[in-house]
Design goal:
The complex is a heterotetramer, with 2 copies of chain A (264 residues) and 2 copies of chain B (306 residues). By secondary structure, chain A is α/β, with parallel strands linked by helices. Chain A has helices spanning 77-82, 119-131, 154-159, 179-189, 203-216, and strands at residues 5-16, 21-27, 40-43, 54-57, 60-62, 67-73, 90-97, 109-115, 139-145, 163-168, 175-176, 195-200, 220-223, 239-241, 247-249, 256-258. Chain B is an alpha/beta fold and 306 residues long. Classes of the chains: A alpha/beta (264), B alpha/beta (306). The complex binds flavin-adenine dinucleotide (FAD) (2 copies), flavin mononucleotide (FMN) (2 copies) and FE2/S2 (inorganic) cluster (2 copies).
Chain lengths: 264, 306, 306, 264
């Protein structure tokens, strides 16, 4: 197992991405800058009325400056406090945590399926594949949301050169409908290609993607969420049921699971 | 001069009095990714049952004011796989190994402990008697002095090394349970297990954990745990005490020692700061130096009551 | 439509189910400087004893993780001065008056309640049975079913209006105490009193309160209180329940109602936000409107257990 | 009893007075701006790991802007958090609390005895006496501390025109020694005058002042401190023993007590 570090560092930048989305960049980090796509970190909130740390997927890492970015949406108590961090504030993080995404094979077409706040790990995945020389035109980046403001950082995705497919339920940006429907269409349209799915998002979307993968015989991986007391695999609090029976820890055995592995 | 942190409990020597609590450090493997387990006085495993147990469906935990509620459901690999898969790792660790044992009948405790008796690197067993006894209508072992005594007496016959009885706080008189444990042949006491609690979502009207009720742990219960340690220490029971409940800092730990604990276990604090034991060990040395004390043992029971 | 907040407990009607807890609102005078007591469903006085009691020397309180510890020592003006000096003020308040009574012998409870029976504006008495009984070696009344039953039965003979028994959480089976209270003739239960705890200063080695041990209250104990309410509500005991313990928000209050409380008492939260009851009352109306519920009574016991 | 208000207002100014002393001014306030000298307020700290509010004496009130000032020294958890307030931050206060100082008689010589962090209520007392037309030369302002940095806001006291007597244990500012010693000297030197003592400070200083008042037959008042769970008189947590037996609540029966009233 890779060594887990607890590091106190400093907030470098906070960006307001509108619609309650924020990006927070902090560093320099030591061991935690080793985070790969799909890894997450555990952020301590400097107020003890929020008892647990909060899990945050890594949205990007700058290997030179050893800075790490997270992107989140204000939802409850933890993220409200997180949004109050300002550049210069100390921040305490734990990582790298979890099992990240596996690498696609050279020839595979990569289909990212991001939904809502499931976007950050897929942004990191696409960014690091492109940086590692993977052909951006071989990456289909689906990003679903209710409406236009849910699809954040569009310029950033476009700049990667990937095939970007925003999808909104109300059609205010990109295609209209549910993202998984459009993913299925694309796979059907290219029956001869080897494809691999990478999905992260709300439970319903993950369930559809999982089913889609099983129905169409497409392999892939899902990044899951669960409330996480420890994030390091010791409390058994964050489990999901497995299709073969029993439970797996999202924090330690995941958060990335193979399609078909978990009972969603 | 470096203060002496070593303590001896029931003949077993510990390099320091800082242990990790059952259910909060798995079987050690994951925590070893955070710090070297050789830093610990000892590690107490997740409760082991006779069969493998999957535990309760999620959600299993909830945040509460100053603490948390959990009902994991004793998820564990069962005694056979524990011996096969977990002992080999634990054996290599330079720390004391305490195996926590749970059951729903006395015979289960006996059976598991008999198997553990053959594992020489298991330094002690800790009996989790906060479990419902199916033979007597689901009454918890640890809430009845006679059940407590019987359970320990039967285990005593098969397990030849020291036995720790881990007491539940949800009783009228914890010192009566402590005395029953002593009568039964326990060598030490772990005080306390989690406190029964419940949390409901006011919007969905659902309990926040699928077991409806669970165990309250963390800073919220520290005063309850300390009062329990004090009560047991001042009872006729003479067993050494391992204090547990809400310990997160060296100051917390010192409170437990002052009230009569010889050592402590760290539970929930590991979830927030996994390296808490390492920090406490450093803090303890500093504390003793500051007080010009040669040994941590000189703190035990020294509270200056009004 | 304004939701109906009124509830009836043992024949006494309350304009809303929000009361202030004993020991946290004095005899009402001070709190009346913060908000009109007519906003309250009821007010429970500080425990009244037969003689005036000065209470313990300071320090009497300490902060803890998510709560506080106190041992005030039942400081109060005694029954005679209470009737002379405090009732005249209380009589004028447009809210229900509940007098909390404490003693160290059954005869003291009886004597005080006999005097209160002559005070028609005292709507109910609440018996604080978390007191050591000097006749039986300092065992707390409320930890023994028989003592509980006897105490209430004796008071029942002299006090003609409803009696609330206030239960302590420090027992193995709180539902057994609840049933004993019902047997003895109690009309309602207040669940729970504070939880025994202790805090020590790691630098001076002194307990942080002069009574050494005290009562833990506040958000820290909310899950414990809720579990106790749930347990009593699901026991054979049929008495209405007033929930107490760590309630600070309307969400907290709703949790207690869902688990079976008909009303609640607010204690420690008054220290941090003295107008908590006013805020909760407003919040409760909003909550019920949001859920399109006509009456707060429709929440009682509606928890959707797994 | 005057009505107690709970008000949420805004920090206007934070001044660093050095040596861990800070001044915080906030407002506008409604009812709380009625605070008189000796009254205190109860400040909520916006983090629930500090369970109780913290009591702070009023150091000044601006009746026009309805702003209130407190002065404190960073000591433990509460004051550490208090020092983190910045101008613009919301702040939640409860007041006016307690029984304040009584007014001196026209002819009386007022002797203020401030020690360490007991300074703020006496600053407010002297300021408002002068503002109300009381002759500043009739006010002797003793202010004791260990060493020079403990005597804060000297210019401000001097500007009032009162007779200012700083006293430090090491003599680094003003007279050397213990403040009560010099107070006794002054009283002895003016045997024919009616004097009234007003003291606030550490326990030892209050005890000496109390004794001095009793020994010399000088009336006066002491402003006390105690840990305060509620601050409004309902918890009975903040008591001090009385000389006549029994206890009084510092928050409600005090914090100002007559010399001879409490058993120090
Ligand atoms: C691996 C992983 C990666 C994630 N990545 C991101 C990301 O990149 N961006 C993002 O916005 N969110 C991410 N999340 C979700 C995030 O961790 C928060 O759960 C979510 O943002 C809401 O948190 P909150 O604190 O604001 O809400 P809260 O309302 O404070 O919490 C939500 C509810 O969950 C409960 N809760 C929270 N934590 C726990 C716990 N550990 N145990 C039990 N109950 C708990 C709270 O008590 C509350 O009831 C991730 C989660 C996981 C597991
Ligand atoms: C009427 C009054 C006026 C005051 N005026 C001033 C002033 O003008 N300037 C100033 O600097 N200080 C003033 N104080 C003191 C102030 O309230 C703080 O107690 C002090 O500053 C130290 O607080 P802290 O929170 O930093 O220390 P902490 O270390 O947090 O608290 C000190 C200790 O007391 C305990 N404690 C704190 N509050 C309570 C409580 N309510 N019940 C039980 N234990 C408690 C803590 O747990 C801790 O052990 C005043 C106090 C009173 C009563
Ligand atoms: C998630 C979790 C799981 C636990 N599992 C067990 C267990 O299997 N056996 C046991 O005896 N105690 C178990 N405990 C109780 C702890 O060992 C400890 O007694 C309790 O948490 C109090 O200590 P703390 O406040 O430091 O956490 C568990 C506690 C937690 C939080
Ligand atoms: C300072 C203080 C004094 C109390 N005094 C009494 C008392 O005299 N009689 C009594 O029955 N309960 C007393 N209680 C207990 C409360 O009424 C209540 O049961 C307990 O505080 C739990 O509720 P809370 O968490 O809302 O405070 C006291 C509590 C506190 C904090
Ligand atoms: S969060 Fe503790 S095991 Fe996953
Ligand atoms: S602080 Fe509660 S009575 Fe004074």
């Amino acid at each position: 197992m890779s060594k887990i570090n607890s590091e106190e560092t400093v907030v470098i930048r906070r960006r307001d991405l509108h619609n309650d989305y924020y990006s927070l960049t902090f560093g320099p980090l030591k061991g935690i800058s080793r985070c790969r796509p799909g890894h997450f970190i555990h952020v301590k909130l400097p107020t003890s009325d929020i008892f647990f740390r909060r899990a945050m997927s890594v949205a990007s890492v700058n290997p030179e400056s050893r800075e790490l970015e997270i992107i989140f949406k204000v939802f409850g108590r933890g993220t409200t406090r997180l949004a109050r961090f300002r550049s210069g504030d100390p921040i305490d993080v734990l990582g790298p945590l979890g099992v990240g995404f596996s690498k696609p094979k050279k020839r595979e077409r990569v289909i990212c399926v991001a939904g809502g706040i499931g976007f950050p790990p897929l942004l990191y995945l696409a960014t690091s594949l492109v940086a590692a020389g993977f052909d951006p035109k071989q990456i289909e980046f689906f990003y679903g949301g209710r409406s236009a403001p849910d699809i954040i950082e569009r310029q950033r995705i476009r700049k990667l050169g990937v095939n970007f497919h925003p999808v909104t339920e109300d059609g205010s940006v990109g295609k209209k409908g549910l993202v998984t429907h459009h993913v299925a269409e694309l796979i059907e349209a290219r029956p001869d290609e080897k494809v691999r799915l990478y999905a992260c998002g709300p439970e319903g979307m993950l369930r559809s993607t999982n089913q889609l993968g099983l129905d169409m015989g497409v392999p892939g991986e899902l990044a899951l969420e669960a409330p996480m007391p420890c994030g390091i695999g010791v409390c058994l609090g964050c489990v999901v049921p497995l299709t073969k029976g029993g439970y797996a820890r999202v924090c330690y055995d995941g958060p990335v699971f193979q399609i078909g592995e978990v009972a969603l | 001069m470096t203060p002496d942190l070593s303590v001896t409990i029931a003949g077993v020597s510990f390099k320091n009095p800082i242990l990790t609590a059952s259910g909060c450090c798995g079987y050690g493997e994951e925590l070893a990714g955070v710090f070297s387990l050789s830093k610990l006085g000892g590690l107490v495993t997740k409760s082991i049952t006779r069969e493998v147990r999957q535990g309760h469906p999620p959600p299993r935990t909830a945040e509460t004011g100053g603490g948390m509620l959990n009902a994991i459901g004793l998820a564990n690999v069962g005694i056979e796989r524990f011996i096969e898969e977990k002992i080999p790792f634990l054996e290599k660790q330079k720390t004391n190994i305490i195996v926590n044992v749970a059951g729903s009948k006395i015979s289960e405790y006996v059976e598991i402990c008999a198997r553990l008796n053959d594992q020489p690197r298991v330094d002690m067993v800790e009996l989790n008697i906060s479990c419902p006894n199916v033979d007597v209508g689901g009454i918890e072992f640890g809430t009845q002095p006679t059940l407590t005594e019987d359970t320990i007496r039967r285990v005593r016959q098969v397990f030849k090394r020291p036995i720790i009885a881990k007491l539940a706080p949800n009783v009228t008189d914890i010192s009566a349970i402590a005395q029953a444990a002593e009568q039964g042949g326990a060598d030490a006491l772990a005080v306390i297990n989690s406190v029964v609690g419940m949390v409901v979502d006011p919007h969905t009207w659902r309990p926040r954990i699928t077991n409806n009720k669970g165990g309250l742990t963390g800073p919220a219960i520290k005063p309850i745990a300390l009062a329990a340690v004090d009560r047991v220490y001042n009872s006729p029971c003479n067993l050494p005490i391992i204090g547990i409940g809400g310990i997160a800092t060296v100051d917390d730990m010192v409170e437990f020692l002052l009230c009569g604990a010889t050592a402590v276990q760290i539970g929930t604090a590991l979830f927030v700061e996994p390296d808490t034991p390492v920090k406490i060990e450093a803090g303890l040395k500093k504390y003793l130096r500051g007080k010009k004390m040669a040994s941590v043992r000189d703190l035990v029971g020294k509270v200056r009551k009004y």
